[in-house]
Amino acid sequence: MKFRCERDALVEQLGTASRAVSSRGGALPVLTGIHLKAHDDLLTMTGSDLEITVKASVPVAISEPGEAVLPSRIAVDIIRSLDSGAIEVEVTGEEAKISGGRSQFSVRTLPVDDFPSLSDPTGDEVTVATSDLAAGLKQVVRAASGDDARPILTGVLMSAEDGGLRLVATDSYRLAVRDLPEATVLSEGQKVLVPSRALDELGRVLGDSEEVTVRLGEREVSFDVSVEDGDVQVTTRLIEGEFPNYRQLIPSSYPNQLTIGREPLLEAVRRVKLMARDTTPLRITQKSDYVELMAVTQDVGQAHEEVDAQYNGDELTVAFNPDYLIQGLEAAPGDEVVLETLDALKPAVLRSSEGGDFLYLLMPVRVS
User: Rounded distance, CA 18 to CA 227, Å?
Assistant: First the structure.
């Protein structure tokens, strides 16, 4: 295999595919590598840990077609280190030579026959506009759990709702819900559970693309995106199991309602959080025309700040994990947000004052 291409285009797509590469390899050491296939003036790079597979392609000038598996980390580091301009990759036997400018590298390859044969995704194609999907993923994926001990909560529920698509994620401490009314990916009543890590990778590559093609099979889903330097396909196994009944967590009404500028509150929370160490919660005391934020850490110090607001309800102090609150404020659209509370121990809901299709539910922290 031998090909020549521009360094900038290659490093971007190689980096994209490498994010799905297994960090350890487990029973298959070859999965620590990235599979390269040069054919028909196109280089296809595949990274996989068998749960998530990312294929990225880029046009190249091919002298000799072929395929090889290169150690992912060193290959990415080498090509990223080269100066912009043309680079050449040549694989002979068990050695890959990478050269650019006056730099030359020689890297031992991994056995190409050991790389698993990954079948192409099946299912009917559905095309979805990228803009709303990208925004929805950014709002929801962060609320999924990163704890593999509870695999159900590491997924994002995608369900058909009123002719559109609903995205839901929770780690049991907060819940994010985003409706995409124009996205018709699933049949009415259908729902699937997609690993949040795969959707996070999808969100990274959507960029300025206008649309994404979705293929939903019985046990997997794939997303195809055309990007500036080529094409990217993200494929992942679906998570089996029943997602928690999140609807019962959302109260139908709230007696206390706080309306406040999103950016002023966000900046104040970030400042007060400086004194919230380890598991220290951030307390919010809601009063008629302002809120008081407070964080107290024993043997360190404390912080207080007031922010103008409009509040309807009984004076109430409620405490939250400051990082979770910040993430909810960052995800909420609009200039003003509404924080709705029942009491100091029941779930609170954060949403835009303009309504809309996004909801963020946050569990309070019990404080003495």
Answer: 16
Structure-block tokens of residue 135: 């925004």
Reported pTM: 0.89
Tens digits of residue pLDDT in 44-85: 999 999 999 999 999 999 999 999 999 999 999 999 999 999
Last residue of a domain, one of 59, 81, 114: 114
Compute, in degrees rounded to 10, the torsion defined by CA atoms 342, 346, 352, 355: -70
Rounded Cα distance between 178 and 187, Å, is: 18
- First vs last C-alpha separation in the chain: 67
Q: What are the structure tokens assigned to 240, written together? A: 């089996």
What is the rounded distance in angstroms from the CA atom of residue 218 to the CA atom of residue 9? Answer: 34
Assigned domain for 306 exists? yes
Q: Which among 119, 37, 31 is positioned nearest to 72, based on CA atoms?
A: 31
Task: Choose one of 181, 214, 247: the last residue of a domain.
Answer: 247
Query: Angle CA(88)–CA(90)–CA(96) in degrees, nearest 5?
Result: 115
**Residues 165, 73 share a domain:** no
